[in-house]
Design brief:
By secondary structure, this protein is an alpha+beta fold. The protein has six helices and seven strands. The strands form two sheets. The chain has a four-stranded antiparallel β-sheet, with helices on both faces. Helix 1 crosses helix 3. The relative contact order is 0.15.
Length: 175
């Protein structure tokens, strides 16, 4: 483990960095053909400091961050009360790592931190079906496919795989 990497719960002071990192990672991941109007409109309206402040202040959400020498490099956002009867109530809504820091074990460490901060036996996420690197990571971490859903914006639909991870009773006791 990198001795300079630390994990903590986000505070309001993090909202600007969270917005900037989210835009950077989202564009790198999904704007692979370049930026067009619907993409720029989406990121500039969805990934705002105001929305991050609201999520940080809302007890339904938990934002957990990873820092390298006090610089935000990754974060996870949990929604602890999703309302899909077919899935666990906890959803990992966002799990973003700055590209510079991928492949260094930080994702695995952040996911372990998420699980230590989760008082549930299972949680789920959705990931773009074309994001093979992320899917491989999640499967390697013990997630299994539960189904598919669709992300819609700009008049387009994008297939996402729904993945679920069941935590072992032993793991829950040690969290």
């Amino acid at each position: 483990m990198n001795p300079h990497i630390s994990f903590r719960t986000a505070s309001l002071a993090d909202k600007q960095n969270l917005a900037a990192l989210t835009i950077q990672v989202w564009l790198h991941t999904y704007a692979t053909d370049g930026v067009r109007h619907d993409i720029s409109a989406y990121v500039l309206s969805e990934f705002t400091t105001e929305k991050f402040a609201a999520q940080i202040n809302n007890p339904q959400y938990r934002l957990l961050i990873a820092e390298n020498k006090c610089h935000l490099i990754a974060y996870a956002m949990l929604d602890l009360a999703t309302s899909n009867a077919d899935l666990p109530s906890a959803e990992l809504k966002t799990f973003y790592i700055q590209e510079t820091f991928t492949g260094q074990g930080i994702g695995k460490q952040l996911l372990a931190y998420v699980e230590r901060n989760l008082n549930q036996q299972a949680y789920w996420l959705s990931v773009n079906s074309n994001n093979t690197r992320a899917i491989a990571f999640y499967v390697h971490q013990g997630f299994v496919q539960h189904g598919v859903t669709y992300f819609e914006f700009g008049g387009n639909q994008y297939q996402n795989k729904v993945l679920v991870k069941h935590l072992k009773a032993v793991d829950i006791k040690h969290m």
